[in-house]
């Protein structure tokens, strides 16, 4: 097996954006990992994840007082994992922030799939923006072996 390539500059490609934005519709919801103030990891499937920019992911959390929100307030470092029939494994790492800016809240809510928006018609949830720091994984298998994805944000 060939060694994985060096990291390139982190910028979500159209292919990565499509995987993230269509994860729920394609029955491959993304799992979010957070760690609470006691150091306990917590995992949850997130159907509302969408790309926010070339280096950010947005998330609408319907429950403003849940484990995820408390954990992000205590420790903003998060990880996400994606897998589908075509994509063996993608890991995303970053720092999450809860936004109270109405423009950002509206953009995150509106980008979420309709099925997710319908579960919070009163928009009582919280918008979270994740600034990605690195992405690593295997996009698939090609004629020359594994197709790697390795990206890191500049320092």
Structure description:
The protein has one domain: Electron Transport, Fmn-binding Protein, Chain A (Pnp Oxidase, Chain A), CATH 2.30.110.10. It is built from four helices and nine strands, in the order βαββββαββααββ. Strand 8 and strand 9 form a beta hairpin.
The count of domains is: 1
Low-confidence stretches: none
Q: Nearest-angstrom radius of gyration?
A: 16 Å
Main sheet: strands, sense, barrel: 9 strands, mixed
Give the full name of the CATH homologous superfamily. Electron Transport, Fmn-binding Protein, Chain A
Residue-averaged pLDDT: 94
CATH architecture: Roll
The sequence of SSEs as H and E is EHEEEEHEEHHEE
Categorize the overall geometry: globular
**Can you give the helix content as a percent range?**
10-25%
- Described by its quaternary structure, the protein is single chain
- β content, as a range? 35-45%
The CATH first-level class comes to Mainly Beta
Give the total of beta strands: 9
Number of alpha- plus pi-helical segments: 4
Category by helix and strand content: alpha+beta
Q: N- to C-terminal separation?
A: 30 Å
CATH topology descriptor: Pnp Oxidase, Chain A
Summarize this structure as a short list of keywords or feature phrases:
4 helices, single chain, 19% helix, alpha+beta, Pnp Oxidase, Chain A, globular, 9-stranded mixed sheet, 9 strands, 155 residues
Task: Write a brief structural summary.
The protein is α+β, with helices and mostly antiparallel strands and 155 residues long. The protein has a single domain (8-152), classed as Roll (Pnp Oxidase, Chain A), CATH 2.30.110.10. The protein contains 4 helices and 9 strands; from the N terminus they run E-H-E-E-E-E-H-E-E-H-H-E-E.
């Amino acid at each position: 097996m060939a060694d994985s390539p060096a990291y390139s500059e982190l910028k979500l490609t159209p292919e990565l954006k499509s995987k993230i934005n269509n994860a729920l519709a394609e029955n491959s919801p993304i799992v979010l990992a957070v760690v609470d103030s006691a150091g306990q990891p917590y995992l949850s499937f997130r159907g509302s994840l969408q790309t926010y920019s070339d280096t950010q992911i947005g998330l609408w959390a319907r429950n403003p007082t849940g484990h995820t929100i408390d954990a992000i307030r205590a420790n903003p470092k998060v990880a996400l994992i994606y897998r589908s029939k075509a994509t063996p494994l993608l890991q995303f790492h970053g720092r999450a922030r809860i936004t109270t800016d109405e423009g950002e809240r509206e953009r995150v809510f509106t980008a979420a799939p309709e099925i997710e928006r319908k579960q919070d018609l009163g928009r009582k949830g919280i918008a979270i923006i994740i600034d990605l720091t690195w992405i690593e994984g295997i996009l698939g298998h090609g004629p020359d072996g594994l197709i790697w994805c390795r990206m890191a944000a500049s320092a």
